[in-house]
Amino acid sequence: MAAAQDLEGFASWIEGLIRERGYDIDSPRGGGKSRLADAAGVHRAAITRLLRRHSMPDLETMRRLARVLRVPVREMLIRSGQLTAEELPPASAAQPPGEGADGTLTLRRAAELLGIPVEQREMFVRVAGQFLPEGGRPEVPARRRA
After folding, report:
1. What InterPro entries is this protein classified in (predicted)?
2. How far from 82 is each of 18, 65, 96, CA to CA, in Å?
3. Are residue 12 and residue 53 in the same domain, yes or no?
4. How far is Cα 139 from Cα 87, in angstroms, rounded to an integer?
């Protein structure tokens, strides 16, 4: 029974997220399911099965949807009931790759988070780097310590 509740809750949450991101999944000819499937690189049938509450997406599909919908994979896994928050350390527990020792975001990590395709990331780093102040570091206020 828990699996059915997980599927219902996850599908409801992801439906709202899909709509927020501008995919028209309500009208039959809106094309939102196909657009989402194409953007994520998954089969349209996987999107349809999820939205009809027939099946939970597999891990790779979740990863791809998370990227397109701009949500952390961690959140997808927890909301889907695949793992618990206790089983997945929060993002603050470990320094993400691509962040400096002082917690500043690198251009490479920013490109990844923005979903820039791998083959275009070096160009992004070069172009964005031209806008950084001398020394190549963004001027980011220090994080407040609790």
Report:
1. Cro/C1-type_HTH, Lambda_DNA-bd_dom_sf
2. 20, 15, 22
3. yes
4. 35
